[in-house]
Amino acid sequence: MAKELADKATEAFLDDDFDVAVDLYSKAIDLDPNCAAFFADRAQAYIKLNSFTEAVGDANKAIALEPTLAKAYLRKGTACMKLEEYSTAKAALEKGASVAPNDSKFKKMIDECDLRIAEEEKELVQPVPPSLPSSSSTPLATEADAPPVPTPAAPAKPMFRHEFYQKPEEAVVTIFAKGIPKEKVTVEFGEQILSVVIDVAGEEAYHLQPRLFGKIIPEKCRYEVLSTKVEIRLAKAEIITWASLEYGKGQGVLPKPNVSSAVAQRPVYPSSKPAKDWDKLEAEVKKQEKDEKLDGDAAMNKFFSDIYSSADEDMRRAMNKSFAESNGTVLSTNWKEVGTKKVESTPPDGMELKKWEY
Questions:
Q1: Are strands 330-332 and 355-357 parallel, antiparallel or unpaired?
Q2: What's the CA dihedral at 249, 251, 255, 256 to 10 degrees?
Q3: Confidence (pLDDT) at 121
Q4: Between these two residues, 281 and 72, which has the higher pLDDT value?
Q5: Phi, psi of 233 (to 5 degrees)
Q6: In Å, how far from its chain's centre is CA 55?
Q7: Residues 284-299: tens digit of each pLDDT
Q8: Where are the alpha helices (DSSP H) in the chain?
């Protein structure tokens, strides 16, 4: 039954009825999801419909099922070239050429990739005049009547919700797919392509294949299948803020400079107020307190306080004991005398200091 559907899909493709071909190939895949040829053929139909990211996803699936299927590499190379992913296209075509060394199509397309890569490198070296828009040169087409590359549309029926957030150096895509086995998830990275395919038992496979807002470094990208989600980390090729996950939606923004460092390096102008020397001020206050002239009880308390602060341990013990035993009427600094006898108190009114020994 699957083979019959695939044959009908091929007839529709030859009749240029590519939508019908995709539909029939999809039904054949539902019946036989392990047939690599079905995915490779549907990828060709997707290319004719300008659905290049979907074509890359199908080609990757075909390669995973049958690594020696030469036409799968050809489909991936063609779709990546349409997306201007020339390095990714070249890598796929070189693998295909190793599988089918006698097929001249691979060499011709590899040469074209080399030409386009050299042009891109040349554009990076040569500065663009201010009066001209900073856009790339007109791309070479693989076919004379090749249509312009449209922005890939989002999947019509998203099975799982996804979202993304970003840091200056990476973008993180989260697909909320719960309880999916790791072997059912296929993730491929290109220069500016993310291809995610999740096989779900009894349902149509989930596809997320956007052309990304900016270029990434495929070898530094990684993903992890968790119990509640699939987390994909995309290493950015440039440190810019993406306006969205998909290409063509807004403009990138350079990160803001570090304001704190700029403030820290702010110059000091002659008109700036000098910083206060708090240690100097504290020393001046202490000197004023020391030189301050007091009267009456305040002067006597200060006098005794100065004696106590400069006394040794024995003198302090003598002063404390004599003051306590005399109820505050005697203050002695002689420990030999105070330490061997009790100090008597004989004040007539309790207000005057009757004895002071030192």
A1: parallel
A2: -120
A3: 78
A4: 72
A5: -110, 120
A6: 30
A7: 777 776 666 666 666 6
A8: 2-14, 18-31, 36-48, 52-65, 70-82, 86-99, 104-125, 259-264, 278-291, 296-310, 313-325, 335-338
With 0-12 / 13-18 / 19 or more C-beta atoms within 10 angstroms meaning exposed / middle / buried, residue 109 is buried
Say if CB 46 and CB 58 are below 8 A apart.
Answer: yes
Residues 52 and 149 sit within 8 Å (Cβ to Cβ): yes
Return the closest-CA partner of residue 335 out of 320, 350, 351, 355.
Answer: 320
Chain Cα centroid distance, residue 304: 69
Q: Would you put residue 111 in left (φ > 0), alpha (ψ -120 to 50) or beta?
A: alpha
- Number of Cβ within 10 Å of residue 256's Cβ equals 8
Spatial contact of 82 and 149, defined as CB atoms under 8 Å apart: yes
**pLDDT of 160-207, one tens digit each?**
889 989 988 999 999 999 889 999 999 988 888 898 989 888 888 888
Q: Please state, in angstroms and rounded to a whole number, the distance separating the CA atoms of residues 269 and 264.
A: 14
State both tokens at 175: 């697909």
Q: What single-letter amino acid sits at 126?
A: Q
Record the tokens describing residue 340, joined without a space.
């061997």
Around Cβ 289, how many Cβ atoms within 10 Å? 9
Sign of CA dihedral 150, 221, 155, 198: positive
Closest CA to 110 of 74, 66, 60, 72: 74
Residue-level length of the chain: 358
Instruction: Give the residue with greater pLDDT, 195 vs 276.
Output: 195
Give the per-residue pLDDT at 138: 47
Q: Determine how β-strand 222-225 pairs with β-strand 230-235.
A: antiparallel
Q: Which tokens belong to 139?
A: 């791309």
